[in-house]
Write a structure and sequence with these properties.
two-stranded parallel ribbon, mainly alpha, 134 residues, 2 strands, single chain
């Protein structure tokens, strides 16, 4: 519920399957549209086509790109990258992606590997890194 409250505007309609974990949605101020998959004559991919399409693409991307070597530790980063790519799949200016990456690389100082892997061990005197968002 905390994720939904952080990510979805109160009063929005949320379409889910019949999982009992979603029951508190209506009590917390969301409109809840339930599609029961179990016992339905239609296939889940027909009842919730977009959900199944995105999950199918995610599975294919994880297996194809990462060859099944997906660690739970880095799953959030994989999902962030998938989301980034999925949201830009129809972008007319994909070529700008490399340009922006190169621009970011020359603008921001490098971060040592140890600071990426062990961010809590950063030196107290270290200058904060600036991030350029375009």
């Amino acid at each position: 519920m905390q994720f939904v409250q952080d990510a979805v505007k109160l009063g929005s309609e949320i379409h889910t399957d019949g999982w009992v974990g979603y029951q508190p949605l209506e009590r917390t101020g969301y409109l809840h549209d339930i599609t029961f998959l179990k016992g339905n004559k239609k296939a889940p991919s027909e009842l919730m086509p977009r959900v199944h399409r995105v999950i199918s693409l995610l599975k294919r991307w994880l297996l194809g790109t990462h060859q099944g070597a997906v660690s739970h530790k880095h799953l959030d980063y994989y999902l962030d990258e998938f989301t980034f790519r999925f949201n830009r799949r129809r972008s007319k200016s994909r070529g700008k992606l490399f340009y922006r990456l190169a621009q970011q690389a020359v603008t921001v100082e490098p971060i040592p590997y140890d600071e990426i892997v062990h961010p809590t061990s950063r030196k107290k005197n270290a200058r904060p890194q600036s991030i350029v968002v375009t």
